[in-house]
Specification:
Blueprint (H helix, E strand, L loop, with lengths): L1 E2 L3 E7 L3 E3 L2 E7 L2 E3 L2 E4 L6 E6 L4 E8 L3 E10 L6 E15 L2 E13 L8 E14 L2 E12 L22 E3 L2 E13 L1
Length: 189
C-alpha cells in the first residue's frame, strides 16, 4: 500500500493499492483510489455513449482496468432540448471472460440549462456489461440510478428540463428526485 495526501507517484503498482488525490504509476494491475489515476502505459479508453438524459456523451478514463477516474462531457444540441454537462467520477472493473467485463461507475455531473443561477447536480451510479468487439473497440450497456439535486429554477428558453421524460417513473428522496435509467455506447480502448 502506498498512501499520499496530494500526489502519489510509483514506478509500478503490481498488486497493491495506491491512495492519493492524484495517483501516477508507470504500470498497474492493482487498485488506484483517487480523484485522478494516471497509468502511463495503459488504459485510456475514450467512450462515446448515450443515456436517458443526453443523446451524446464522451468520457475519458484514466487509471487501470480495475480502478479508474472518469472525466465526462455531454450535450443535447436539439432545439428546445439544449443541455450541456461536465462531470467526473470513479469506476472499477472486473474481467468476466476473455472478451467480457463488468464495470461499476459513480459520477457527479453538473448541467447547464440556460440559467447560471441553477446548475443541477446529478449523482449517478451505473453498471455496464462490456463486450470486446475487436482489439481496440468494445460495446457496453447497462442500467443506472440517478439523483438530481437541482434548485429547480426554470431553465432558459429552448433548454430542456433535466429530468428524463415521464416514462422514467421518477420518485422523491428528501430534496432529491431519483430515477432508474440506462447508458449504452462504444469504448475505444
Amino acid at each position: 500500500m502506498q498512501l499520499a495526501g496530494l500526489v502519489n507517484i510509483a514506478k509500478g503498482n503490481s498488486s497493491g493499492v495506491q491512495i492519493g488525490l492524484i495517483n501516477i504509476a508507470d504500470s498497474s494491475s492493482g487498485y488506484m483510489i483517487g480523484l485522478f489515476n494516471i497509468v502511463r502505459n495503459k488504459h485510456r479508453p475514450l467512450s462515446v455513449f448515450s443515456n436517458e438524459i443526453l443523446p451524446l456523451n464522451l468520457s475519458f478514463k484514466l487509471g487501470s482496468r480495475r480502478s479508474y477516474s472518469i472525466l465526462l462531457a455531454g450535450l443535447d444540441p436539439r432545439d428546445n432540448e439544449k443541455a450541456y454537462m461536465l462531470g467526473l467520477g470513479l469506476g472499477i472493473g472486473a474481467a468476466l471472460a476473455p472478451k467480457w467485463s463488468f464495470n461499476t461507475e459513480l459520477t457527479i455531473q453538473y448541467y447547464y440549462l440556460g440559467n447560471w443561477k441553477s446548475l443541477p447536480t446529478v449523482y449517478r451510479l451505473q453498471t455496464s456489461l462490456q463486450w470486446q468487439l475487436a482489439k481496440k473497440i468494445a460495446l457496453f450497456a447497462g442500467p443506472s440510478f440517478s439523483m438530481d439535486y437541482a434548485n429547480h429554477v426554470d431553465p432558459g428558453s429552448s433548454y430542456k428540463r433535466l429530468l428524463p421524460s415521464a416514462s422514467y417513473h421518477t420518485f422523491y428522496l428528501g430534496n432529491a428526485t431519483a430515477w432508474f435509467g440506462w447508458s449504452a455506447g462504444i469504448n475505444f480502448l
